[in-house]
Every structure is written in structure tokens, then in C-alpha cells.
Amino acid sequence: MKRPELIYHHIVDEITQIIPQTTSNKELHELGKLFLGKKFRGVFPSDKVPTKQGYFLVNLDPSDQPGSHWVGVVRKGSRTYAYDSFGRKNLLPFKATYTESDPEQLIVSTNCGARSLSWLILVDKWGLQAGMEI
Fold first, then answer.
1. Residues 20 and 111: beta-carbon distance below 8 Å
2. Distance between terminal CA atoms of the chain?
3. What one-character DSSP code corresponds to residue 39?
4. Which of 32, 27, 78, 72 is nearest to 52 (CA)?
5. Residue 95 pLDDT level (bands cut at 50, 70, 90)
6. What is the dihedral of CA 11, 30, 131, 61, to 10 degrees?
7. pLDDT tens column, 22-44
């Protein structure tokens, strides 16, 4: 296992002790602010993500639906990067470079919010290159 992957799994373990499974917008927002401070811009449905720089948690559902799955999004410079814990690509209605191609989450698990937040923390502390290597 590569070092960034080990760090990511350590962060996931810490976050899932706080929020073990399915998470609410409020829980994710509070933890995002706690761990990332002002860099964390919030949690959003896929059709309401602001264009400003920073770290976001984005639900794949648009604002008129209940929510289905969280992904992490980083906007830096003119680039947008996205992380999906199932390793999928082209999920969001805007252009993004997807950082992961192998699944980190089992299909029966419901901790996508914790995993996406963990990825954002990894990127914040160790850089985008680490986020591309997990």
C-alpha cells in the first residue's frame, strides 16, 4: 500500500469514529469546517455548487431530490478535481478531473460522506498529488 493510501485510511478511521455511516448535510458541514476551516465552502447538491475556490462536499442528486451519494470536490486555480469513493468518473454536471479509478468503498457500505471528507483532508494536508495516489 502506498503512503498516501495509508494516510487516507487512517483519516477515514478517525472520521468514521465520529460519523460511522450515513451522514446528514449538517454533520458533514460541521466536520468540514472543523477540519478544513475557511477553505471548506460547504455541502451542496450537484446543481448548486458555487464556482469559487475551495473544498466542497457534493451530493450527486440535484436540489429537488433527497440525496444519494457524496463526492469530494476541490477547486484550485482553473481546475476542479473530484473524488468518488466508488472510483467512478463523469458523475457531476460540470467538468472535473477525477482522482480515483479503483473503489475505496464497498457497495453495501454507507460511509461515502466520511470517505469524501477524508479525501479533502488528505488533499489539504498533503496536496493534490497525494489525493491522486490513493
1. yes
2. 9
3. G
4. 78
5. very high
6. 120
7. 778 999 999 999 999 999 999 99
